[in-house]
Amino acid sequence: LRGSKSFTAALPGEAERNGHGLAYKSVSVGHLEVAPLSPSRLSLGRASSTATSTVAPEQGGRPRDYLVLAIFSCFCPVWPINIVALVFSIMSRNSGQQGDMDGARRLGRMARLLSIVSIVLGTIIIVLYISLSVRGNISF
């Protein structure tokens, strides 16, 4: 037996309903139209949660990208973490400018988390360094 190259796919704007409230249309593999994914979705490998979200739509404009916090965290001595936070913040800003509010929100939260972790770890490292150098255990 040989499998068919056509199948049923949900496409927006179709009049037929499949009994579950979703439109469907039978198409062949070569004729599918897929919207391009934003860079934020490609980099994180997670699908948008717009369909399953129970949160009301954005009420204050663009989501925050925490760029200032990420730049401030770059002054802490935890460079791999704060550089990644800065990259996530820039990706959040780019996603927001391209209209991908869900991706911008998700990337902004990750930038905020990494920036806070970087600042906390950097503060601990600085305090330990100063306390050990005052006691005379560390020499310059």
TrEMBL record:
<dbReference type="Pfam" id="PF04505">
    <property type="entry name" value="CD225"/>
</dbReference>
<keyword id="KW-0472">Membrane</keyword>
<feature type="transmembrane region" description="Helical">
    <location>
        <begin position="66"/>
        <end position="90"/>
    </location>
</feature>
<dbReference type="InterPro" id="IPR051423">
    <property type="entry name" value="CD225/Dispanin"/>
</dbReference>
<protein>
    <submittedName>
        <fullName>TUSC5 protein</fullName>
    </submittedName>
</protein>
<comment type="similarity">
    <text>Belongs to the CD225/Dispanin family.</text>
</comment>
<keyword id="KW-1133">Transmembrane helix</keyword>
<dbReference type="InterPro" id="IPR007593">
    <property type="entry name" value="CD225/Dispanin_fam"/>
</dbReference>
<keyword id="KW-0812">Transmembrane</keyword>
<feature type="transmembrane region" description="Helical">
    <location>
        <begin position="111"/>
        <end position="132"/>
    </location>
</feature>
<dbReference type="GO" id="GO:0016020">
    <property type="term" value="C:membrane"/>
</dbReference>
